[in-house]
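Suppose you are handed a protein chain with no further information: no name, no annotation, nothing but its sequence. What can you learn? This example shows the usual starting point.
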Amino acid sequence: MGTVMWVGLVVITAVVAFFIGAFVTKKQFKQDELKEQAEQAENALEQYRQDVADHLASTGKLVNKMKENYDQLLSHVEETNQLLLEDRNKAPAEPFFSKETTEQLQASLKERQCDRSNAQAQPADYVSGESGLFAGQNKVSEHSKAS
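A reasonable first move is to predict its three-dimensional structure. Written in structure tokens, the prediction is:
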């Protein structure tokens, strides 16, 4: 019985060792899997941080470029304004009408003011008596009615 007992003890020890090994292996496999997931999460976080840093850097570049464009636009507007002010100061304003025309217009305005001061005067377009195309037409129509 000694040999059977030893063989049985070895078999039981092998079975127990097999289950303990399987349990430890499963536990080790789960730990390895968790470590791998943690590493993947860390890599994903690091990649996200890098993406955010790249995005902020490109946004900063765009803001600087936009600021430069704004500064260029502002300087252009200031230069144009200076040119316009200088041109106005250098050259006197050109009259719209010639000197003679301006004198005639002023004279006619003075005449109108004199005419307006006389409140009882008839309007310029008022004609006393018969005039125009229909002058004497009433007489013709009266003769045609009589016949």
